[in-house]
Amino acid sequence: MSSPVVAATFHAPAMAAIHAGCFPPGECWSATAIADQLVLPGTFGLIDPGGGMVLARVAADEAEILTLAMLPSSRRQGRARRLLQAAEDQAGSAGAGVMFLEVSERNIAARALYAAAGYLQAGRRPRYYPGGIDALLLRKQLIPGATTTG
Ligand SMILES: CC(C)(COP(=O)(O)OP(=O)(O)OC[C@H]1O[C@@H](n2cnc3c(N)ncnc32)[C@H](O)[C@@H]1OP(=O)(O)O)[C@@H](O)C(=O)NCCC(=O)NCCS
User: Fold this and answer.
1) Residue 41: inside a domain, yes or no?
2) Residue of 22, 3, 28 lying closest to 110 (CA atoms)
3) Which atom of ligand 1 is nearest to the CA of 102?
4) For a substitution probing ligand 1, which of 67, 99, 113, 121 has the most ligand atoms within 8 Å of its CB?
5) Tell me: the pLDDT tens digits for 107-138?
6) How far is the CA of 117 from the centre of ligand 1 (A)?
7) Would 148 be classed as within a structural domain?
8) How much is the pLDDT for 144?
């Protein structure tokens, strides 16, 4: 399995194509939206050449997974787990001690992935997603004992 590639803005169309293959039309990110994220300070993207992508953001000593997606044909091979780990490593290298993310309460696959990767529920955002579905706020300590300014 080839290693994740650090995304540049010229990867945005490919990342958007992956996103479109993983989310319903109203929820997928355009190439422009992805490119706009990639140029923000602290934001980075990683691509799995097998058909996956992750966007994450580091702000001071905290980080956040903005989105993560793996094309159906490449799922259940441990690829998303590897992308997530690579994002955690990069965020940790940039000084983040904690990673946060939001996931739909109904997203069984993603919740299982995050639970297996050591994420714990830190909160709930009622009716955050279309259809009135709650978001779960998950948190993982990247550096044992790290405290955050937030
Ligand atoms: C969630 C998603 C990224 C997982 O991608 P993936 O490459 O299949 O995940 P992995 O193969 O790395 O799975 C790692 C672990 O997560 C869990 N997992 C992943 N998919 C699962 C599923 N469908 N059912 C149950 N557990 C699942 C398992 O514990 C798995 O380990 P195992 O295969 O050894 O049992 C993918 O299903 C996806 O893109 N879904 C649509 C977009 C999405 O929901 N993104 C996340 C938004 S927060």
Assistant:
1) yes
2) 22
3) 48
4) 113
5) 999 999 999 999 999 999 999 988 899 999 99
6) 11
7) no
8) 77
- For residue 108, how far is its CA from the centre of ligand 1 (angstroms)? 8
CA 11 to CA 74: how far, in whole Å?
A: 19
* Within-domain flag for 38: yes
CA of 79 to the centre of ligand 1 (A): 9
- The residue whose CA has the least distance to atom 21 of ligand 1 is 109
Domain membership of residue 101 as a residue range: 5-141
Whole-number Å distance between alpha carbons of 11 and 110 = 24
Domain contains 79: yes
Return the CATH number at 135: 3.40.630.30
**Ligand 1 atom at minimal distance to the Cα of residue 82:** 12
Å from CA of 126 to ligand 1 middle:
23
Total domains in the chain come to: 1
Q: Are strands 120-129 and 43-48 parallel, antiparallel or unpaired?
A: unpaired
Token look-up 């993207």 returns 45
Region of 127 please: left (phi>0), alpha (psi -120 to 50) or beta: left
pTM, two decimal places: 0.95
